[in-house]
């Protein structure tokens, strides 16, 4: 491994992360599509271990949280700002998908199940989450909460160490015993034991990889290929006999490390690269909506009285195509504009009320009481004061931060 100066996420690593997000979503998508088709008609499809996409998602999440939150380490209000950003990213689409599911597919769902789904309750037996993929988002939100608190530390290593120690300790103390009996489904436990499932250690793998990346560690082409080969060998040798975090979790970590730390450059601006990045962009929309799209296809088939018997591959292809189209539309028309709008609200600078009051009280009283003694009403000095008062008022209303308002106030007062 080579060590290079820490830098921004370069284009090769960005493409790799986006490609992995796309692959993870497509794996889950493929696996659920097979299940949906085989419920209607017996068929034999290539088994690609769709649930493995969840493990890749968890490792990527740990990596991205460390990398993207660097500027928040030890900053005042960092936990709240970080968690608000994650809510803006995760909640709107998940809530919208759950609402559509409840309205059109399961209108008989209980209030307890709906509320449990919307607010990421840790596994209310047989009821929540209504949108099945929500079981993974429960772990995501728990990890975000832990990581938000860890952001109180000022150094990168301290943030990662704090979050990692807590997750491991929490899993050891409250988690269920390791088992390979249910390697792919959501945990069978409820409440605290659900959150403490050992699968949460997969986030730690991603955070560790981010530490190496931020330290400037990069892999040669041979090291990259070696890690990828090792990942597939490990996966084939350990699944399903070894508990998930130490089989699929380690394999996912090796894949994410191999691609994100690789020093191999990607061709810039090629249609293939742009397509991969876009697939990564729509991955969350695909993840949240694909089960709804399968229900939509099944409804269309039933309305048209078309039997899928003898047409399993056509039915499967219709589900895949419909799912991708709905995911693209959802991303472009809902997820992207909604997320951008909420992020602008979160990032908009606000002047604390105490600062605004202090600045306002510092303005000479003559600003609000007509011309100062000795000044003619139409003098340049009066016009200047009026103009400055209007500018300060606009600045406060626009939410400028305190230094900016302070500079304007100093100019107004002639300091």
Précis, in short:
The chain is mainly alpha-helical and 415 residues long. The chain has 16 helices and 2 strands.
Structural description of this entry:
The chain is mainly α. The chain has two domains: 2-347, no CATH class; 353-413, no CATH class. 67% of the residues lie in helices and 1% in strands. It is built from 16 helices and two strands. It has helices at 11-40, 52-68, 78-104, 111-118, 134-150, 156-174, 191-195, 201-214, 221-238, 248-260, 271-281, 283-303, 312-347, 353-362, 380-398, 402-413, and strands at residues 2-3, 217-218. Helix 3 (78-104) packs antiparallel against helix 5. The longest helix has 36 residues, at 312-347.
Query: How many domains make up the 3D coordinates?
Result: 2
* Overall pLDDT: 83
Task: List the secondary-structure elements in sequence, H or E.
Answer: EHHHHHHHHEHHHHHHHH
- Oligomer designation: single chain
What fraction of residues sit in β-strands?
Answer: under 5%
């Amino acid at each position: 491994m080579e060590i290079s100066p820490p830098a921004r996420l370069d284009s090769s690593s960005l493409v790799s992360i986006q490609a992995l997000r796309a692959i993870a979503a497509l794996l889950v998508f493929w696996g659920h599509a097979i299940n949906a088709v085989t419920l209607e008609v017996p068929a034999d499809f290539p088994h690609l271990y769709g649930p493995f996409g969840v493990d890749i998602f968890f490792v990527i999440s740990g990596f991205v949280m460390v990398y993207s939150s660097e500027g928040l380490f030890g900053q005042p209000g960092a936990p709240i700002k970080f968690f608000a950003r994650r809510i803006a990213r995760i909640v709107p689409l998940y809530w919208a998908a759950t609402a559509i599911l409840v309205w059109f597919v399961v209108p008989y769902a209980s209030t307890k199940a709906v509320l449990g789904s919307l607010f990421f309750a840790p596994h209310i037996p047989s009821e929540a989450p209504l949108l099945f993929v929500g079981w993974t988002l429960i772990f995501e939100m728990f990890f975000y909460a832990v990581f938000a608190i860890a952001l109180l530390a000022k150094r990168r290593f301290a943030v990662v160490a704090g979050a990692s120690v807590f997750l491991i300790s929490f899993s050891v103390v409250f988690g269920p015993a390791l088992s390979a009996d249910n390697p792919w489904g959501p945990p069978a436990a409820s409440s605290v034991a659900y959150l403490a499932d050992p699968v949460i250690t997969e986030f730690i793998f991603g955070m560790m990889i981010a530490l190496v990346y931020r330290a400037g560690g990069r892999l040669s082409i041979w090291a990259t290929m070696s890690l990828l080969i090792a990942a597939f060998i490990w996966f084939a040798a350990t699944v399903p006999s070894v508990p998930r975090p130490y089989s699929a979790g380690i394999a996912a970590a090796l894949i994410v490390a191999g691609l994100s730390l690789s020093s191999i450059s990607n061709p810039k601006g090629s249609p293939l690269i742009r397509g991969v990045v876009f697939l990564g962009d729509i991955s969350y929309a695909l993840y949240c909506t694909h089960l709804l799209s399968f229900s939509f296809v099944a409804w269309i088939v039933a309305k048209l009285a078309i039997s899928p018997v003898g047409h399993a591959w056509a039915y499967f292809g219709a589900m895949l195509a419909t799912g991708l189209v709905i995911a693209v539309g959802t991303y472009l028309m809902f997820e992207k504009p909604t997320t951008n709008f909420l992020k602008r609200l979160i990032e908009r600078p606000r002047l604390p009320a105490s600062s605004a009051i202090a600045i306002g009280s510092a303005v000479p009283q003559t600003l609000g009481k007509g011309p100062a003694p000795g000044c003619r009403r139409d003098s340049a000095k009066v016009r200047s004061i009026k103009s400055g008062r209007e500018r300060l008022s606009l600045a406060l209303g626009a939410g400028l931060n305190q230094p900016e308002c302070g500079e304007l106030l100093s100019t107004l007062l002639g300091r």
